[in-house]
Specification:
The structure is a homodimer. Chain A is α+β, with helices and mostly antiparallel strands. The first copy, chain A, has two domains: about 130 residues, Creatinase/prolidase N-terminal domain (Creatine Amidinohydrolase, Chain A, domain 1, 3-Layer(aba) Sandwich), CATH 3.40.350.10; about 220 residues, Creatinase/methionine aminopeptidase superfamily (Creatine Amidinohydrolase, Alpha-Beta Complex), CATH 3.90.230. The first copy, chain A, is built from nine helices and 18 strands. Chain A has a six-stranded mixed sheet with strand order 4-3-2-1-5-6. In chain A, a hairpin with a 4-residue loop joins strand 16 and strand 17. In chain A, helix 1 crosses helix 5, helix 6 packs across helix 7 and helix 8 packs antiparallel against helix 9. The longest helix of chain A is centred in the middle third of the chain and has 21 residues. Chain A is elongated. The termini of chain A are far apart. In chain A, about 50% of the residues are buried. The interface between A and B is large, with 47 and 47 residues.
Chain lengths: ~350, ~350
């Protein structure tokens, strides 16, 4: 049995538990998780249809069919021609199914077209069904995440040796990308270099701002290595930190470390968020920590579990997620420290291990 | 009035014509077309809600709100906090709307969640509504597409001077990427280098195959420059073409040229596909031309109009699309020639102008 046959078997069992008659997955990582094949996010629909009691069929544009590698006969492939109506074909595959789980990232256009064909059919998001499988990583998956983390850790150390001042954010960002690709990543997902006041925008897009002495610079980047994601954030300071930075950074480091320490099987996702948040609130920076503590990571950069207030999900061994508190002072500076950690039987393994202090660069 | 105010005004007029009470757009290019803001494709929902008779509201994750630049007060912004329920808020914004058009690429999860809140509301894909606006490009949009085309044309000419043999597809592909970024593109969208038998798979992913003497190599790449897309395909041949290549290439060039010649306002999209296809069929290669002739291009690499059998859409000035016939011999080789053209008042402007002959490289 291949991994894919196993995973399809597991998802069918989960479907039976939830009275789901059919599962459809399209763009995003659910599809490669189940089949090894990733669909292009295009107007030509790709959809894997898994009936609860039948053979899975991968419906793909005919011109993409040569790219599909069916491992161990885990599913059939139907390549549709340019003048075919693939929605009609998928509707036929769903014949008899009343409850259909639909992959989260599937284009709404295709779901609405399927609904129009059969208004009696009930579609629900496949989020929880798929998360139940994907949220606990296998040792091989953790190995892939560990390798991806090592690559970005090395890039952080390299960047600590280069000059930042006088360069645009975009230029520094390009260097981060090049070094990460050279380090073994196939593609990048994001490449934040946010300097000075731009650091206060957590997802700032690197632009034309020229980095200068006295800037704090948030460097948050990640991509794909052997199909699994990296994601780390470290702080760089040009010559000297800005006013107020050191005091806040001490709080941030302590909060990040305490949250990592708090991770073990049996605690809730929300409780880990609270550990970091409480420390930051007590130190008076609570209003400036404007996002959740972290997110799961695997074949997607963001996936379950989410470490956020209100999420009572219980942490289990094999879960992998980020711990990334931040403090953001509008118009002034921002800071964030981010590690990916894997939950073990009795605690955590840190996948990112580069120095968490801020790095002073020229 | 900004472009965005104008465009929102135009889409409201189109909504009135179609009895659409509200339009929702999320990830993809509809959102930046209407607002200048592009949403990250993440689990945190971003959605612009345009009621037919009220102010548009852009619902964004709070931590993304600093990235939104509201030009000329064209819309309001609502930043939701991590523990809020943004779907509930969007549902409130849709209060009173029974017919809602939903952006094509919106994650199905969010549409299904909105449907669950109000089962009486009717959601339809926004495809045609948005295409009616986006399909005819303004002179400024065509200028952006022309500039993007010039960049990739220059890269094609540069690649004609480099060695292909002895290098992996991935390595050559990386050079194409680097040169295109150096030429002025902000990001890449795709970077096909398909050598020898891999060329028979139209969307082949560049891999470890080492290119050798006698290979035909399909190079098809594009990306984004100032928010608009490039997309061109040229053929490279290492030392000498494979058996049967020259005869087929002559047919392909003639078919591509005839299709470009056939473009003018008033003809149908399908008729242009037929011009190229008929020539290829007559020459005996019909079974090997396995995809449509072309696709519109603008802020997306693939958008309306699609040049495909059965599409009776009438071509109008301002439309911009690819003309890209291909011939694919399984296990042997593939070939494709692709130009982007803009429809003028009485014919076409070719945006790609690099030599369409195959380039002999070492």
């Amino acid at each position: 049995m291949s991994d894919f046959s196993d995973r399809i078997g597991n998802v069918k069992a989960a479907m039976a538990d939830r009275n789901v008659d059919a599962l459809c997955v399209s763009v995003g990582s659910d599809l490669p998780y189940l089949t090894g094949y990733r669909a292009m996010p295009l107007e030509r629909v790709t959809m894997l249809v898994i009936p609860s009691n039948g053979r899975p069929v991968l419906v793909v544009p005919g011109l993409e069919a040569p790219r599909v590698d069916v491992v161990d006969g885990a599913f059939d492939v139907y390549g549709w021609a340019e003048s075919d109506d693939p929605i009609a074909y998928i509707d036929q595959l769903l014949h008899g199914a009343t409850s259909v789980a639909m992959g989260d990232e599937t284009w709404s256009r295709f779901v609405l077209q399927l609904q129009e064909r059969n208004t009696a059919r009930d579609f629900t998001p496949a989020s929880e069904l798929m998360a139940a499988l994907r949220i606990r990583k296998s040792p091989l998956e953790i190995e892939a995440l560990r390798n991806a983390a090592h690559t970005v850790d090395a890039v952080v150390d390299e960047m600590a040796q280069v000059r930042f001042s006088g360069r645009t954010e975009r230029d520094v960002s390009r260097e981060v990308i090049d070094r990460t690709i050279a380090g073994g990543h196939e593609t990048m997902d994001f490449w934040i270099v946010a300097s000075g006041p731009n650091g206060a925008s957590p997802h700032h897009e690197p632009g034309d701002r020229v980095i200068e002495s006295g800037d704090a610079v948030v460097v948050d980047f990640g991509g794909y290595q052997n199909g699994y994601c990296s994601d780390t954030t470290r702080m760089f300071v040009v010559d000297r930190p800005p006013h107020g930075f050191d005091d806040a950074f001490e709080v941030l480091q302590a909060a990040q470390a305490a949250a990592v320490e708090a991770v073990r099987p049996g605690v809730t996702a929300a409780s880990i968020d609270a550990v970091a948040r409480d420390l930051i609130v007590e130190a008076g920076y609570g209003e400036l920590f404007i996002h959740r503590l972290g997110h799961g990571i695997g074949m997607d950069t963001h996936e379950h579990p989410y470490l956020v207030e209100g999420n009572d999900l219980v942490i289990e061994p094999g879960m992998v997620f980020s711990i990334e508190p931040g403090i953001y002072v509008p118009d002034d500076w921002g800071m964030r420290i981010e590690d990916i950690i894997a939950v073990t039987d009795d605690g955590v393994e840190r996948l990112n291990r580069s120095d968490r202090s801020y790095r002073v660069v020229s």
